[in-house]
Structure formats: structure tokens, C-alpha cells
Amino acid sequence: MQELLRRFAFDTICKVSLGTDPGFLDASLPESTLADAFEVASAISAKRGAAPVFAVWKAKRALGLGSEGQLRAAVKLIHASVMEIIRTRKTELKKGTQHNDLLSRLIVGGHKDEVIRDMVISFVMAGKDTTSAALTWFFWLLSCHPEAETEVAKEAKQAKGRLDYHALKDMKVLEACLCECMRLYPPVLWDSKHAAYNDTLPDGTRIKKGDRVTYFPYGMGRSEKLWGKNCMQFDYRRWLSESGDVVRESPFKFPVFQAGPRVCLGKEMAFVQMKYVAASVLREFELRREESRKQRPALVPLLTAHMAGGLHMVVEKREEMDSILNAKLST
Ligand code: HEM
């Protein structure tokens, strides 16, 4: 599941940002070199961020050695591929072909090619593994909590026909479950900033120019002080008000999409995409964990929260909802 979700998210974000579908999800096509280059670049960048001594990777970068040489080659390939897409799109737009993607809007906005290239690459990087990480942990957690899974499936079944924007907006239980999953397994586990100048945090902590300051959504999501005694339990109901609406928590308590002026620009899109995938799958299929893999999976902190060994599920066509509910009531 993890691999399928990652491939799907990559195709989706390329379609939205670049207006092209690399077909990474289609196993019958040859491997996408662009997707591979993004993989290599993000894995090596994540290792840079986690390295205890920066001097080592900086020296390797200066000499173009090892992983730094690979990173340079991956970045070169990504830049060249995106520049090629920009050139082709410019020609198409000049001929009057209509395009709705981010790239075309930036071209029409008159930005320089290098600026456009870097902006669309940022979007691909930001959107390619985040929603898939959230969904991987979502499907796993729901398989551990069948009552929540039944509620989500019921809600998805009630939205008969097309899962359009409005139908997805109305899915409150699904949204609550996604928030609860991201509280326990935030796709971005931690996030660092470097101080541009000396500063003092609201609690009086002094920060010097150049200091690295990290906030830790994974730790905050499991903090008893913030979430109460049952902070380690999966309880999607904490996200539902008495009237059934989703509780809007402060981003400073739930900083999964960051807080302040530079919050995630793709949050709304991420929810639409995650709800669409979750509802489409769960209204048709039941997903169970493989018997041999029932223990808690290990989390690998790459740039996003990766599940070690992937997510292996047994997929079955869902029976009619009534018979599921009856079976659950009789046991
Ligand atoms: C569950 C999914 C997602 C999560 C948890 C998430 C989380 C985050 C976080 C924590 C940041 C702040 C990073 C930083 O500045 O240090 C961020 C920024 C950003 N995200 Fe997301 N993201 C998600 C999905 C997406 C998607 C699908 C897109 C694109 C459509 C996107 C686009 C962006 C962009 C462009 C920024 C940079 C904003 C800025 O610097 O002003 N994100 N996201």
C-alpha cells in the first residue's frame, strides 16, 4: 500500500504542478527517471539534515564525491526535465492550448524560467510523500480500529455517486480520523529553521543568529499536556464536536502543517486528495493487515514518516454495509 500510495501521490502532484502525468503508478510503464531522481535527491537531503557533523557532507559536496555526487546528478536531471517541460508548455500556450496547472499559471504570470522551475519543484517535493505518508498510517491505524473503519466506510457509502468536492467536505468522521492519524504519525515529524538574527521566543528562550530551532510535531502529538491522559490512544472522537463538526485545533497545538505565516500551501488540497483516496477505497474494499505483520510497524524518519518494510494488506471486496453492521452487532 505504501508504495502504491507514494506512486499515486507523485503522479497527482506532477499533474497539479507540471500538468503532466509521469505514469509512475502504472507498473506496466518503464520506471520514471524523474521520479527516481526526486527519490534520490530527497533521501540524500534528509540524510544531510540528520547528519551530526555537517562538515562531512560539505566536504563531499565540494569534491562531488559519493552521495553528494549522486545528489548533484539527480538535481541536474530534475532541472533539465522541468526546463524541458517549461519550454514545451510555453510553445503550447503560445498556440492557444488551455492548461490549468500551476506551471502554466506561473508562465502566464511572466516569472523567469529559473524561478518557475524552482517553484514547481518545491511543490512536487512538498506534495509527493506527505499525503502518501499520512494515508499509509491512516490505513494501518484503521485496520487496528475496526469500529472507526466501519464508521468511515458507512460515511463513504452514504455519499452515493461521485465523490465531488462537496461530498468530501461533508465527510466529518473521515476528516477526524485523518487528523487523529496525523496527530500520532505526522508526515513531517520535525522541522527546523535557522535564526536570521538574535531573537527571544515568547517563553523567554534566547536564540542567537544562526541557531537551529526545531519544532517537533511527533512529540507534540503525543504530549499529555496538550492532548490529555489518553494522548497515546487513537480516538478520532476527540476531533468531533457535539454537533458533529470537526474541531479546528490551533496550529500551534497541532503544527502538522506548520503554524504562522509560512503554513503549508497545500493543506486544503491534501485533505481533498486524502479523503478522495480513503473514501474511494473504503467504500468498495475492506483492508486487513497480513496475519504475519500484526505487530506495530517501525517508523523510519526520512524527510517524511516512512513505514519500515511497507504496508502489506489483504484487500477484499466489501460486503453490503447492512450485513457488515449486522455481523458486527452479533459478535
Ligand atoms: C498531509 C499532507 C501535508 C503535510 C502534513 C504538509 C506539511 C507541511 C509543512 C510542515 C510545511 C512547512 C515546511 C517548512 O516551511 O519548513 C509545508 C509547507 C508547504 N507545503 Fe505542505 N504538507 C502536506 C501536503 C502538501 C501538498 C499536497 C502540497 C502541494 C499541493 C503542499 C505544498 C506546500 C508548500 C508549497 C509549502 C511551502 C509553504 C511556504 O514556505 O510558504 N503541501 N507543508
Could you explain how this protein is built, in words?
Its cofactor is heme. It comes from Ensete ventricosum (Abyssinian banana). Keywords: Heme, Iron, Metal-binding, Oxidoreductase. InterPro entries: Cyt_P450, Cyt_P450_E_grp-I, Cyt_P450_sf. This protein has 331 residues and is mainly alpha-helical. It has two domains: 126 residues, no CATH class; 202 residues, Orthogonal Bundle (Cytochrome p450), CATH 1.10.630. 54% of the residues lie in helices and 8% in strands. The chain has 14 helices and eight strands. The strands form four sheets. A two-stranded antiparallel sheet has the order 1-4. The protein has a two-stranded antiparallel sheet with strand order 2-3. It starts with a helix and ends with a helix. The structure holds protoporphyrin IX containing FE (HEM). The site of protoporphyrin IX containing FE has 19 residues, from helix 6, helix 7 and helix 13.
- Report the sheet with the most strands, covering strand number, pairing sense and barrel closure: 2 strands, antiparallel
Backbone structural class: mainly alpha
Determine the number of helices (DSSP H or I, runs of at least 4 residues). 14
Total tally of structural domains: 2
Shape: globular
Strand content: 5-15%
- Summarize model confidence as the mean pLDDT: 92
- Rg from Cα: 22 Å
CATH architecture of the largest domain: Orthogonal Bundle
Q: What is the helical fraction, as a range of percent?
A: 40-55%
Low-confidence sequence ranges: none
Family: Belongs to the cytochrome P450 family.
Keywords: Heme, Iron, Metal-binding, Oxidoreductase
GO molecular function: heme binding; iron ion binding; monooxygenase activity; oxidoreductase activity, acting on paired donors, with incorporation or reduction of molecular oxygen
Cofactor: heme
